[in-house]
């Protein structure tokens, strides 16, 4: 359990303002009216931003346009989540390999550039974007199970040796599909029960609680190994 895969947006970094701006820009591209910030937050929290797109709009095209645009915009409000820097330092001090994945459809270098802007790139070992995943592996829109499989294969580890941290139910479904340990954060404003229903093993308030959870998991693993060593 020495590989930590971190989702980027709303898990490692707070980009809610960017989400609001890019969502409305995408609506305008598809000939739709902008929605207010209040309505956006409400629909975002309820995971209904897709439902309010009219049926005559190709939703796959809409969201692919959205996630490409997402990588081109930077707002003054974009910043690492509370405690993110300290958590990244802790992970490196404890010899974890830290991998960032994102549903943005951009080249990895764009993500590296942003991580450098936040001064956290030196704590990250690898970056994967949904652009590197085969289209057929995205059975649910924004699913990164193909990226998780790539990571598992590249590092020659068992899925259960990988911890995937994300804020969205699709993240949890992806982790469940490949067999990783899935930790959900509530900074993405989604309901804890929904995240658990889709495969979260643990739900925490935010990334700042990750060291405590990882320490607990490590202690349980050590205890399990000790029990297995004892003669039957």
Mean pLDDT: 95
In N-to-C order, the SSE pattern is EEHHHEHEHEHEHEHEH
Number of domains: 2
CATH level-four homologous superfamily name of the largest domain: HAD superfamily/HAD-like
How would you briefly describe this protein structure?
With 232 residues, this protein is α/β, with parallel strands linked by helices.
Description:
The protein folds into two domains: 3-13 and 79-229, Rossmann fold, CATH 3.40.50.1000; 16-72. Strand 4 (97-102), helix 5 (108-117) and strand 5 form a beta-alpha-beta unit. The mean pLDDT is 95. With 232 residues, it is of the alpha/beta class. It has nine helices and eight strands. It has a six-stranded parallel beta sheet with strand order 5-4-1-6-7-8, sandwiched between helices. Strands 2-3 form a two-stranded antiparallel sheet. The protein is globular and about 70 Å long. The protein is 44% helix and 14% strand.
Provide tags for this entry.
single chain, 232 residues, alpha/beta, Rossmann fold, 2 domains, 6-stranded parallel beta sheet, two-stranded antiparallel sheet, 9 helices, 8 strands, 14% strand
Fold topology:
Elements lengths: L2 E5 L5 E2 L1 H14 L7 H9 L13 H11 L9 E2 L3 H10 L3 E6 L5 H10 L8 E4 L15 H11 L6 E5 L2 H10 L2 E5 L6 H6 L4 E3 L5 H20 L3
Helix pairs in contact: 1-3, 6-7
């Amino acid at each position: 359990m020495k590989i930590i895969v971190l989702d980027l947006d709303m898990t490692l970094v707070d980009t809610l303002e960017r989400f609001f701006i890019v969502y409305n820009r995408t609506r305008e591209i598809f000939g739709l009216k902008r929605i207010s910030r209040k309505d956006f937050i409400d629909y975002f929290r309820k995971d209904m931003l897709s439902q309010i797109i009219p049926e005559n709009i190709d939703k796959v095209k809409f969201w692919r346009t959205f996630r490409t645009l997402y990588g081109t915009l930077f707002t003054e409000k974009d910043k690492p989540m509370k405690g993110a820097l300290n958590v990244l330092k802790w992970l490196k001090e404890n010899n974890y390999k830290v991998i960032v994945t994102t549903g943005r459809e951009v080249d990895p270098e764009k993500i590296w550039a942003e991580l450098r802007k936040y001064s956290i790139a030196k704590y990250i070992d690898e970056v994967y974007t949904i652009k590197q995943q085969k289209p057929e592996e995205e059975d649910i829109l924004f699913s990164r199970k193909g990226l998780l499989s790539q990571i598992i294969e590249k590092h020659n580890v068992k899925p259960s040796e990988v911890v995937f941290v994300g804020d969205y139910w699709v993240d949890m479904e992806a982790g469940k599909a490949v067999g990783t340990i899935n930790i959900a954060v509530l900074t993405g404003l989604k309901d804890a029960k929904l995240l658990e229903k889709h495969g979260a093993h643990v739900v925490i308030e935010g990334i700042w609680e990750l060291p405590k959870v990882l320490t607990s998991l490590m202690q349980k693993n050590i205890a399990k190994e000790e029990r297995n060593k004892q003669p039957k």
